[in-house]
Specification:
370 residues; two-stranded antiparallel ribbon; 4 strands; 3 domains; mainly alpha; 6% strand
């Protein structure tokens, strides 16, 4: 999966942390103008902190963004253009943080333009001479899926914490460019929307990161071969029906139902790992082939063409599964196109097990390949 490029990539030799926060600000402009405006303040404040340390100015660690701005301006380090841009980012950021009104894309774009003036000044004055700042460029709405607001907040918070830590590494005798060379790779990568780890499940020291797109995923019991009954019982107690209902630590999850033990917790945790990986593959498939209809069975899939969808669900077309076909027809499911995309659901029918569903899938695949 290719990592998307972003405008402020040229900042990485100066500060990977600044570059990565700028990347998330770019992602948020058309997803959540409020998020962009609010977090732009943190971005410019860290630039000012780095400048203050580099210039060896004395400041109160508890100083506000305005106080830091005034300190640099009063000492003659800011041009009028940069000072005004900083004030704009500060004031619009304050409004976004406190005002409940709807913020417009145009406001986020103006802040983005102000950020460019600030970054250009910072790099030209304090960055390596070898770095060329590109001409200003308006961001474009992404044609693909955008980041969710909660996902953006998680990404920005992690990167801002890293950014604060990087500023603290800069000593009075160390230039910004020299410090940047020692900074490790940021933990939040430039992933496609939906893949940011939104929470972490644990079991006896083992961890499983849950991506944003699975935050509220329905945990279909049939997807968990060894934990199906366990999940059904938990669901009856309003536990573990969706991913967000699971506790962060699965230890003792079995205590919500009778006649289960720690082994069931462990097995479910291992099957959740498989579930997450399968879902990542399925999501990537859907992103690569938008508008396509798929049938899924375990780790495999079939692309449902119009021709395949019209095939009748009859004994003449599908052999060895008469009971399943009869019950499907009774439910008025008469053609392949009416089948659920998650074929394991079909195991709900009487006298229909995993083997019967697999027989159907194999025959569907054979017909598709003809």
């Amino acid at each position: 999966m290719d990592k998307p490029s972003y405008f402020y990539q040229f900042l990485e030799p100066v500060s990977k942390e600044l570059a990565f926060v700028a990347r998330e600000l770019e992602n948020s402009i058309f997803s959540s103008p409020r998020t962009m405006l609010t977090h732009a303040r943190v971005f410019v404040e860290n630039i000012l902190q780095q400048v203050i340390k580099t210039e060896k100015l004395i400041e109160d660690p508890r100083a506000s963004l305005k106080e830091r701005l005034d300190l640099l301006n009063d000492n003659g380090y800011l041009t009028n253009e940069v000072r005004d841009a900083l004030h704009y980012v500060r004031m619009t950021g304050n409004q976004a943080a406190h005002d409940s009104r709807m913020f417009r894309y145009s406001e986020a774009l103006l802040s983005w333009e102000a950020l460019y003036k600030i970054v250009r000044w910072y790099v030209e004055v304090y960055g390596p001479v070898s770095i060329k700042v590109p001409d200003y460029q308006d961001p474009s709405p992404k044609a693909s899926e955008s980041y969710g607001i909660s996902e953006l907040e998680v990404r920005l918070k992690a990167l801002e914490e890293l950014l604060v830590a990087s500023v603290q590494k800069i000593t009075d005798d160390t230039a910004v460019a020299e410090t940047a060379a020692t900074i490790a790779e940021a933990p939040v990568e430039a992933e496609l929307p939906g893949y940011t780890a939104i929470r972490t499940l644990t079991y006896k020291g083992h961890k499983l990161e849950i991506p944003y797109f699975l935050r509220d995923a329905f945990l279909l019991p049939q997807r968990f071969a060894k934990s199906e009954t366990f999940l059904i019982r938990l669901g009856a107690e309003q536990q573990a029906r969706i991913m967000s209902e699971l506790p962060n630590n699965l230890y003792d999850l079995h205590k919500h139902v009778k006649r289960y033990n720690e082994k069931n917790d462990e097995t479910l945790f291992e099957e959740l790992k498989i579930f997450v990986q399968e879902e990542k593959v399925r999501r990537q498939l859907a992103l690569e082939r938008p508008g396509e209809l798929f049938f899924f069975h375990k780790t495999d899939h079939i692309i449902v063409t119009e021709e395949l969808s019209k095939i009748p669900l009859t004994a003449a077309e599908f052999t060895g599964i008469p009971s399943l076909l009869r019950q499907l027809n009774q439910d008025q499911i008469e053609t392949v196109g009416q089948l659920p995309k998650e074929l394991v659901i079909l195991a709900k029918y009487e006298n229909v097990g995993a083997g019967t569903v697999e027989k159907l899938f194999v025959q569907l695949k054979e017909k598709q390949n003809k």
